[in-house]
Amino acid sequence: MWSPMANKTIVVMGPTGVGKSSFILDSVPPGTRVPNIRIGHSLTSNTRDVKVVEWVNQDGTTIKLVDTPGFDDTRPECPDRGVLAKIARFLKKTCSKTPQLVGLVYLHRISDNRVGATSRRIVDMLRKLCGMDSLKNVVIVTTMWDEVTQEEGEQREIELQSETDFFKTLLDQGATMRRHTKEDRQSALNILNYVLGKQGTTPEIVREMVNEKKTVERTTAAEALDVKREPALDIADLLLHDPIGKRRIKCHSGEVAFIF
Predict the structure, then answer these.
(1) What does the radius of gyration of the chain's CA atoms come to, in whole angstroms?
(2) 87 confidence band (pLDDT: 50, 70, 90)
(3) Are the beta carbons of 115 and 166 closer than 8 angstroms?
(4) Closest CA to 194 of 186, 203, 184, 202
(5) By three-state DSSP, how is residue 213 classified?
(6) Is the distance from CB of 114 to CB of 260 less than 8 angstroms?
C-alpha cells in the first residue's frame, strides 16, 4: 500500500533565463523521458506552462521534478501574476490533500551585478507563497558561476546572504543556499538528494486557497507582486555600505548595483 510520501514533488522556480531547464536536465536520471524542456538563451521564457518530469527512484518513490515559466519575462502576455497563477494551481492540485511537496528550488544568477525592484518583489512573493512552515523546504540555488570570477561570485554570494533586501530573511527562516555550476552536474544531484530528504509540506498559498477560499489574485503572494510607489531617495541615501565593506549604490529605480 502506498504511503502519502510515495510521491515526492520538487518545484523549480526563478526569473527567465536563470537556468531552470538546465538544472532539471542535469538532475534527472539518464534515460528519463523529458517532456519538451528546452534550454533558452533569450530574455523570453522557453517554458510557458508547468511541465513535470517524472521517474521512479530505486526505493519505489515517484519523483516529480517541475519546470515552471520564468518570472520577469519581457513579453507583455506573460506577466508575473500569470506565472504565479499557473504555479499556484499546480501546487493546489498537488498539495491540497497530501503534502507531496518536499522542495522549492529558487534559482538566481550570481552573474547579476544588480538586483532590481522586480527581483526583490519576486523574492518577497516566494517568501509569502511558502509561509513560515515551508521555508525550510526552500533551496536558493545560484547559477551562472562561469560568467564571474571566483572572487566576484563569492563577494556577491556574501551580499545576497547577508542583506535583508535579498535572501537573508529567507535564510534566517529556514531556507538554505547552494551553488549549481554548469561544469558540475553532481551539484544538481546533490541539491536534488538534499530536498528529497525533507518531509512534505503544504505552502501558505495552498492554505489560503483551500482553507480561506481565496483566489490566486487575493493571496498574499500575489499582493507581493504589486508595484508600489517608493519614496524618492535623498542623494545622501544613494551610497550604502554592506557588511563586507564593498560599496553598492541604490538607485532611484529601486535597483541595487554592486561595486567591486
Answers:
(1) 18
(2) very high
(3) yes
(4) 186
(5) coil
(6) no
Contacts of 6 (CB under 8 A, 6+ apart): 60, 61, 62
Cell numbers representing residue 179 in the block: 551553488
Residue 183's pLDDT band (cuts 50, 70, 90): confident
Residue 243 gets the label, from left (phi > 0), alpha (psi -120 to 50) or beta, of alpha
* CB contact set of 229 (below 8 Å; sequence gap of 6+): none
- Number of H-type helices and E-type strands within the chain: 8, 10
- Cα–Cα distances (Å) from 14 to 32, 71, 258, in that order, read 23, 6, 21
Assess whether pLDDT exceeds 70 at residue 206.
yes
240: amino acid identity, one letter: L
Q: Is 4 exposed, middle or buried (0-12, 13-18, 19+ CB in 10 A)?
A: exposed
Question: In terms of pLDDT, which residue wins out, 7 or 32?
Answer: 7
And the C-alpha cell for 21? 531547464
pLDDT the model gives residue 58: 87
Contact 12, 24 (CB under 8 A): yes
What would the pLDDT profile of 127-152 be if each residue is shown by its tens digit?
999 999 999 999 999 999 999 999 99
CA distances for 48 relative to 16, 51, 71, 163, 191, angstroms: 11, 9, 11, 32, 25
In degrees and rounded to multiples of 5, residue 241 shows phi and psi of -125, 135
Helix (H) or strand (E) holding 88: helix 80-95
